[in-house]
Amino acid sequence: MSTSTIEDRFWAFVNVQSPDECWEWGGGRLVAGYGHFWALQKTHKAHRFSYALAHGPIPEGMFVCHACDNPACVNPAHLWLGTHQDNMDDRTAKHRHRSGDTHPRSKLTADDVENIRANRMNLTGQEMAALYGVANTTISAVLNRQNWKESK
CB–CB of 83/63 below 8 Å? Predict the structure, then answer.
């Protein structure tokens, strides 16, 4: 019979380094790179579990943010509590926000968006979607400035 605790099991998945380095999660990871850990009858994000072990319960609605910007890091010294807005402000301050054609999944360029908006009276949304190889909803979002807000 094993006498290991949940904490022992958690830290067995962590490559602990010096206090100022990232401590990489060695267990399973979600698509975005965040570790996940099964304990207490549910799956927890590893960085949130680490924060709670080190600092206590996480208040409802609060985010556990990474000072190091490494989603796999579970070093409690790299983790801080913040609101969604705090997390977005941190992302912007560190220039990690990608939009427009700098976003890795973008199919359109700034020139495409300008042409789509210029041709809104000449072509239907369906015709533009076929021309640019995107969904009708993408064309609609561009025309209604839900996407590419900063473009002409």
Answer: yes
Return the closest-CA partner of residue 77 out of 17, 6, 9, 8: 17
pTM over 0.70: no
Q: What would the two tokens of residue 144 be?
A: 């209604």
Span 101-152, pLDDT tens digits? 544 556 777 788 888 888 888 889 898 889 988 888 888 888 988 877 665 5
Length of the chain: 152
CB 87 within 8 A of CB 96: no
Separation between Cα atoms, residue 24 and residue 35, nearest integer Å: 9
In 3D space, the residue among 42, 29, 36, 34 whose CA is nearest the CA of residue 10 turns out to be 36
- Cα 136 → chain centroid: 26
The strand ranges marked E within 16-150 are 24-25, 36-39, 42-45, 63-66, 79-82
Query: Which has the closest alpha carbon to 128: 145, 112, 111, 109?
Result: 112
